[in-house]
Amino acid sequence: MIRVEKLDVAFGHGQSRHHVVREVSLSVSRGETLGIVGESGCGKSTLLRSLAGLERGWTGRIWFDGREVGTARGREELKLAQMVFQDPYGSLHPRHRIGTALAEPLRAMGYRDDQKRVLQALRQVGLPADFANRFPHELSGGQRQRVAIARALILSPPILLLDEPTSALDVSIQAEVLNLLADQREERTLTFVLVSHDLAVVAHMCDRVLVMKDGTFVDELTKDDLCSGVAHDSYARELFDASFL
Amino acid sequence: MSDAIQTDSEMLHSPGLMVRMGSAVRRAFGKLAEEPLGLAGFAIIGLLLVVAAFAPLIAPYDPTAQSLSSALQPPSLAHLAGTDEFGRDIFSRLLYGSRITIQTIFFVSIIVGPIGLVIGIVSGFFGGRTDAILMRATDIVLSFPSLILALAFAAALGASLSTAIIAISLTAWPPIARLARAEALVVRNADYVAAARLYGASRLRILFLYIAPMCVPSVIVRLTLNMAGIILTAASLGFLGLGAQPPAPEWGAMISSGRKFMLDYWWVAVMPGIAILLTSLAFNIVGDTLRDIMDPRHARS
Amino acid sequence: MHDRDASPILSIRDLNVRFGRNAIAAISDVSFDIGRERVGIVGESGSGKSTTGRAIMRLLPPKAGVTAKKMAFCGEEILGKTERQMNRLRGKEMALIMQDPRYSLNPVLPIGKQIAESARLHLGLKSKEALKAARDMLVRVRISDPDRVMGQYPHQISGGMGQRVMIAMMLIARPKLVIADEPTSALDVSVRKDVLLLLDELVRENNSGLILISHDIRMVASFCDRIIVMYRGRIVEELTSSLDKAQHSYTRALIAAMPDARHPVRRLAVMDRQALDNFGERVA
């Protein structure tokens, strides 16, 4: 579903050139969830933003669903992958009602303004229909993240890119959001790429985990590895030990 | 299933636009009630609007009717603010003058606000060369002393109220554009803008539906705070004889003509002075209050 | 020294905090004792755990109404103290370590000076001695290159280093009680453990009490002797042994909601807030 070859991202020029992602390659099959863990500054978010098309300065090749996508993307290419952001307070426009926020992707893509689809999207993420009239500040963090997920899914993309989707939430809310994501994945056979610093969350959600450090992958762990606490690389082991005191 | 959707959409439309606007207005008034000073500012401006609208009904005399026999009379019950050198009732002239002031403020605002906003957000959102060109242009205009530029314009186009308005507008947009640009620079990096780019919203759509709404409140606040300056510039132009022409009762022009008699007949210059002072003060207070109400970041807790 | 070990450092009875005219109390009827031990306060956002910490330090804004039957620190009532007395107490006798060192350190002062200032203020040292004490303290928090760090500004160091500096600054006066409010949540996973172990070591050495405020019940469980679980401003449970012994439904739900790599589940357990609130009302 996703194939990436030699993706390379660097910011700045000359002396201040900062190599953030160094020629990484990966592939994710349909319905699989790939986790990427690493600490702040390891390049995991930049990698995800490059996949989404938000970061334009990358080199290498990316395929979604067998179709090569470049830095500038048309509507059909954008419809292949959508993203859920970390901060539920920053990812919804503060002056757009929830109904507008959910209708915007449809309008921008040139569909007919479809109230039914908006209400259906709200219901799918477990929110009552009258939330469409509310503003984001009238919602809790968990509810906002549900709306963000609904917005990402309203164009029915086969791929969902998740950037620390629960790290700003309380544990009990995190559980609800993770369950919601898992349900949607099952229902729509979605392919996820989940970026997080929390190994427990990644282990819970993902079939396969890549450990990232200084812009490259240092280790690849399967679900069984995670359950039995096996790590091949010393850094991955260190991360693993630190996550479970 | 269809039934469920039916009731859903009924719920969706149940709080009508009027109800929602009503609740928003009520909320704004609720906040306003906690700020007596702001309320006073709003009251003065409200009074100004009423006076401008009903000047012919309120004014006891014709503002241009001369009566040389009763020239330069001190304030009394017959002439609340005295009379000027032609025997015209200053109070009536002040009332009529408010129309000119309101007109100036209104036109300057509707010219300056949108121009400043658009230049600012375009510059901030697109960045790069667009930003460089627009901002250098802004810098150039900003580096002119506004009164001198207005003078040059008024001199070139001939002295009248409309040239004064154009002249003031030409010099008043740069601060607004700067402010809008600063806001746009912050907003364009927000996650909701990134999300909009991901679902294919066009640049214009992002600019006007996502970025502009976030910049409008601070632009309105800034515009209100600038209003005092605009009133003073308009008065200065009037004082220099480059604004509204006599016998129109422009406040600045009234001070100017009263200047010659000021030492012996103080009210001739002081009365319009008080009007200018009160109005610009009211706009400053209202601007501050609006900032507290509309811009939660600056709100006092 | 040793004969006082048995008496609690901090003793709180029926602490209530209310903000403004708000009808709902932020904290209601919270009572606990802290001895020379490590106690964790666990709860989700809005549970009142941070407010409790700040109420003890008397750092809540003046509009907050704080009442308590008893709030004694080393036998002295805290609520009756003047602001000047509290200033003498804060930093010297009780210290607060906050979440993000980037915001709690002064950005325009070099680190060495900031720690020395704390030593000068609370230990009454001359400036030269204070600087030496600051350097020693940096060595104690295992900063490998103390002389370089002394001259650096807060923005030049990493988060983990910043938290070490914060700990050095707060513990230089050997306070009797240390309150750490989410001391590791802004840090990278790999340095969290080191910071916690360091905090633990210094607190043990000073023989002081530690209140660790956190949302992460597992982390707190592996680290503290006792856990106080808060929900909606009330203490719902106190745990002294392992998490498996948790009785209250909220505590259990909180533990079950956390994903655990070693015990994978297909779906995470979700809290039934309705039932919890009903339960709470019945008790109250």
Task: Report what the structure shows.
The complex is a heterotrimer of chains A (245), B (301) and C (284). Chain A is of the alpha/beta class and 245 residues long. Chain A has a single domain (2-88, 158-243), classed as P-loop containing nucleotide triphosphate hydrolases (Rossmann fold). Chain A has helices at residues 44-52, 75-78, 98-108, 115-124, 141-153, 171-188, 199-205, 223-228, 234-243, and strands spanning 2-11, 18-28, 33-37, 58-64, 67-69, 81-84, 159-163, 191-196, 208-213, 216-222. Chain B is 74% helix and 0% strand. In chain B, α5 runs antiparallel to α10 (203-239) and α10 packs parallel to α11. The longest helix of chain B is centred in the middle third of the chain and has 37 residues, at 90-126. The two termini of chain B are 47 Å apart. Chain C has a single domain (2-283), classed as Rossmann fold. Chain C contains 11 helices and 11 strands. In chain C, the strands form 2 sheets. A 6-stranded mixed beta sheet of chain C has the order 7-8-9-3-10-11, sandwiched between helices. In chain C, a hairpin with a 7-residue loop joins β1 and β2. In chain C, α4 (111-123) crosses α5 (127-140), α4 (111-123) runs parallel beside α7 (159-171) and α5 crosses α7. Chain C starts with 9 loop residues before the first strand and ends with a helix. Chain A binds chain C through residues 39-40, 170-176, 178-179, 182, 197-201, 203-205, 223, 226-227, 229, 238-239, 241-245, and chain C through 44-45, 159, 188-193, 196, 215-219, 222-223, 253-254, 257-262, 264-271.
Q: Topology of this structure?
A:
The complex is a heterotrimer of chains A (245), B (301) and C (284).
Chain A: E1 2-11, E2 18-28, E3 33-37, H1 44-52, E4 58-64, E5 67-69, H2 75-78, E6 81-84, H3 98-108, H4 115-124, H5 141-153, E7 159-163, H6 171-188, E8 191-196, H7 199-205, E9 208-213, E10 216-222, H8 223-228, H9 234-243
Parallel strand pairs in A: 3-8, 3-9, 6-7, 7-8
Antiparallel strand pairs in A: 1-2, 1-4, 4-5, 9-10
Helix pairs in contact in A: 3-5, 5-6
Chain B: H1 2-13, H2 17-33, H3 36-53, H4 55-58, H5 90-126, H6 128-143, H7 146-157, H8 161-187, H9 191-198, H10 203-239, H11 251-258, H12 267-294
Helix pairs in contact in B: 3-5, 3-12, 5-6, 5-8, 5-10, 6-8, 7-8, 8-10, 9-10, 10-11, 10-12, 11-12
Chain C: E1 10-19, E2 27-34, E3 38-42, H1 49-57, E4 64-67, E5 70-73, E6 76-77, H2 83-89, E7 94-97, H3 101-104, H4 111-123, H5 127-140, H6 146-150, H7 159-171, E8 177-181, H8 189-206, E9 209-214, H9 217-221, E10 226-231, E11 234-239, H10 249-256, H11 273-283
Parallel strand pairs in C: 3-9, 3-10, 7-8, 8-9
Antiparallel strand pairs in C: 1-2, 1-4, 1-5, 5-6, 10-11
